[in-house]
Specification:
- The protein has about 400 residues and is an alpha/beta fold.
- It folds into three domains: about 25-65, no CATH class; about 85-170, no CATH class; about 180-380, no CATH class.
- About 40% of the residues lie in helices and about 15% in strands.
- The protein has helices spanning about 35-40, 85-105, 110-125, 130-140, 145-175, 190-195, 210-220, 235-245, 260-265, 300-305, 345-360, 380-385, and strands at about 20-25, 55, 65, 185, 200-205, 225-230, 250-255, 270-275, 285-290, 290-295, 310-320, 325-335.
- It has a seven-stranded mixed β-sheet with strand order 4-12-11-5-8-6-7, with helices on both faces.
- Helix 2 crosses helix 5.
- The radius of gyration is 22 Å and the shape is globular.
- The termini are far apart.
Length: about 400
């Protein structure tokens, strides 16, 4: 029998249906769903747009009534693109689409073997970002040997290539009736209970495991999440990736200029998805990451603390091969509860960074070591160095 309470668990529902939204009382504009608000925004009528009374069917057979969170059309690219750049974009886009078609045509076992061979080629022959990966691993794990660092780097490239294979096959492999074959969930009862709260929520992860697949699964379960992501430099490729991300209900907000949209989603008690492990430079919030000072974006903590939104840290760790994952809730911090982890911006940033570090230590090869995570130094340190000794 399904749970009778709102704090539903995954085990008691055989196959959660996807979320469906429908206006209970149409306003006569002729548009339905999120297209109504998006079209009003494109026409510059956001302030005057009529508001629907909405019924939202969640993934657990419950119906909630309210107003939809804001969803806007992705803005056009503002910078000028030359003819050569546009041609290069089309060539890259065509090559990626052909590669995706080849991946989808091959058996998954063949894709897995090919990913291993390509990982050896990238790590040992092509040596793409070899120095960055080596320096990051030396900083994070000074106790391991050079041979272990090379092995971790090769396994990281294998993991990244397998991510591409999983993204290409996701729509065909993972459905509401098959996800249990590919996913093992840990501590998600608290996750579901928190998402049921009529409050804003912030969902955090990092460039670890298959975070793209995790966001895809949340949409499959019927949870509407607005994720903030940087636009790719190639607009054709960016649209292609965005279509995959939004295929199960997730909505993508561009990283640049999305602060008003994020504030509106939180005001409507929606859920925001963010990756919290990117370097923010000297102006960011400085915390400890693997024992060294690192910078994170202040906006994450500012959004959570200003909206009094619970922060949920999640990870999706590969167990063995393709489509075999542990989806884990690493922790929850609720500013309304007044715990030490959410006392201020620095405490909250250090808390979720420490949880991400713990997940990375379990499987170091599944983290994106290609990013320059430790760069720059705090402004205070720079001033102290520049100040002459008394």
């Amino acid at each position: 029998m399904p749970c009778s309470t709102r704090s539903a668990c995954f085990s008691c529902f055989p196959s959660p249906p996807p979320r469906r939204c429908r206006p209970a009382e149409p306003c006569g504009c002729g548009r339905t769903g999120f297209n109504h608000v998006a079209a009003a925004n494109r026409s510059g009528l956001r302030a005057a747009a009529p508001r629907h009374s909405w019924q939202v069917r969640t993934g657990f057979g419950q119906v909630r009534t309210g107003e939809p969170p804001f969803s806007r059309q992705r803005p056009p690219r503002l910078r000028h693109r030359t003819l050569a750049t546009r041609c290069a974009d089309r060539l890259v886009y065509g090559a990626v689409r052909v590669a995706i078609c080849v991946i989808q045509a091959l058996p998954r076992e063949s894709c897995e073997r090919t990913a291993r061979r390509l990982a050896n080629l990238v790590a040992n022959r092509m040596r793409i970002r070899r120095n960055v990966v080596r320096d990051n691993l030396r900083t994070a794990f000074p106790q391991i040997t050079a041979n272990e660092r090379r092995t971790t780097a090769r396994r990281m490239w294998e993991h990244l290539l397998l991510m591409v294979v999983e993204i290409a096959h996701a729509n065909r492999v993972i459905h509401k009736t098959t996800w249990r074959k590919h996913l093992r969930i840990h501590g998600m009862e608290d996750f579901v209970r928190t998402l049921w709260l009529d409050r804003p929520k912030v969902i955090l992860s990092g460039h670890y495991g298959n975070f793209e697949l995790a966001a895809y699964l949340f949409g499959l379960f019927g949870f509407r999440i607005f994720s903030v992501a940087r636009e790719l430099d190639n607009p054709l490729l960016d649209d292609f990736v965005t279509r995959f991300r939004e295929s199960r209900g997730q909505r993508i907000l561009p990283k640049k200029g999305s602060a008003p949209d994020v504030a509106l989603v939180l005001e409507e008690n929606g859920a925001i998805g963010l990756l919290g492990d990117q370097s923010a430079g000297p102006k960011g919030c400085w915390i400890e990451f693997f024992g060294r000072p690192a910078s994170v974006h202040k906006a994450i903590g500012v959004f959570a603390l200003s909206a009094s939104a619970p922060v949920l840290v999640c990870s999706a760790t590969r167990r063995r091969g393709l489509f075999d994952y542990d989806l884990r809730l690493e922790g929850i911090a609720d500013p309304a509860a007044g715990g030490p982890e959410s006392a201020d911006l620095t405490s909250l940033s250090q808390w979720y960074t420490s949880l991400l570090e713990g997940a990375i230590r379990r499987e170091p090869a599944q983290y994106w070591w290609v990013h320059r995570r430790w760069r720059g130094e705090p402004r205070k340190a720079k001033k102290a160095i520049a100040r002459p000794a008394a």
